[in-house]
Amino acid sequence: MDKVQLPEHPIFDVVSKAASELGTDAYVIGGFVRDLVLKRTSKDIDVVCVGDGIALASMVALKLPHRPKVSIFKNFGTAMLRADEWEVEFVGARKESYREHSRKPEVEQGTLDDDLKRRDFTINALGISLNKQNYGALIDEFNGLKDMKRKVIRTPLEPGITFSDDPLRMMRAIRFATQLGFDIDPDTFDAITENKERIKIVSQERITDELNKIILSPTPSYGFKLLFVSGLLHLIFPKMVELQGVETKNGNSHKDNFYHTLQVLDNVAEVSDDLWLRWAAIMHDIAKPDTKRYSPKVGWTFHGHEDRGARMVPKLFRDLKLPLNEHMKFVQKLVKLHLRPIALVKETVTDSAIRRLLFEAGDDVDALMTLCRADITSKSENKVKRYLQNFDKVEQRLVEVEESDKLRNFQPVITGEVIMETFGLKPSKTVGELKEVLTEAILEGKVRNEFDEAYAFLLEKGKEMELPVVKTLASNEKGE
Questions:
Q1: Calculated CA dihedral for residues 149, 152, 156, 160, nearest 10 degrees
Q2: What are the residue boundaries of the HD/PDEase domain, all occurrences included (predicted)?
Q3: How far apart are CA 420 and CA 476, in angstroms?
Q4: What parts of the chain have a pLDDT lower than 50?
Q5: Are residues 389 and 427 in the same domain?
Q6: Neighbours of 161 (CB within 10 A)
Q7: pTM for this prediction
């Protein structure tokens, strides 16, 4: 029997002694063992005992020098405590049975063998003994070690039953394959395809949690390809599936926007771990199917797909149960602006266009440029190189204009309150119009964003609109 060297931490020895005093057997099980074998860092330890997991947790807490608090979850028969940086969860060995319309199992006490059988994949059905007679021995009843060496995801039991019982495991199979760079065993993958409709009984929150883990993987496109081929993507994110395919008319074809999107996602993943920037990559062309048009003169067009896509983002986030907060607004902004830097690669680009981009992108301009660079996916290396060099020039212009004009997240120095006080106005459409005219003048470089100059411009515009001046303000009255 193989033995595994456990990390040097007293928690393992303490659990061993506590289990011995309680007359029970204890094992480290699951993901911690998998990651230990794969030499991946993990601080979450699952301990299974053939008996009362809560009693074992309480005994362990008494034996640890810092006497950690034990969090008990009676409904699940589990307990959890922290030992330094480790989070340790205790549970009694159990066996499970499932009903057709629920992924919540009926649970009863069981043996170690029962507990290992209920695990989702062989690589997660490994255990390490903490018992005196065979401390450190690897428990591997389903050849999980062999599957790890082969880099294969496989279920311990018949995969059709495994996925029908708990359909979320189909998402987890693809997630683990993507995170670890493993293949999915052919029979296991066939069972995912056959049971894909069962995903409908899983909550959207749980599905999206797994989807986010796929997106955060080193090469997320691999997971999306598995989701697509299995048919799961059609059920959990149909709008993304609509991107797939190439249409040809009169010998003119457009590119496959699904695979283009996956390439953009991988390009972003190479340079950023930001989940929301990766979501922006996924959604940047999401409206192309809705805006696709063909003209014999110009070929295929997707006019306005950036604006349409930005309007789609809130509903997509709502459907996917993603947060409707600043993260959604960030993705929406990048989808809306993702074509703008491409339009700035011309030598004749004006400072006003640069100012406008800085103003609209604000602090997200660097993320926007990362997305735009990732969006260059031509098969022609020379074309990609040329575009990226152009982006270098745009970024240099952005830096120069920002340094001179300080336009990132700028607010006009003339506020709505100043406008109302000057012309004796109440909050109204006129105040908004004046503020917008002033903002445009600053962005166009006609007026500097300084009080005296901007205020003189305001008075001139008020005169044009035949607005009486009630009070003329000086800069020092506004704290300038």
A1: -170
A2: 253-377
A3: 17
A4: 479-480
A5: no
A6: 13
A7: 0.85
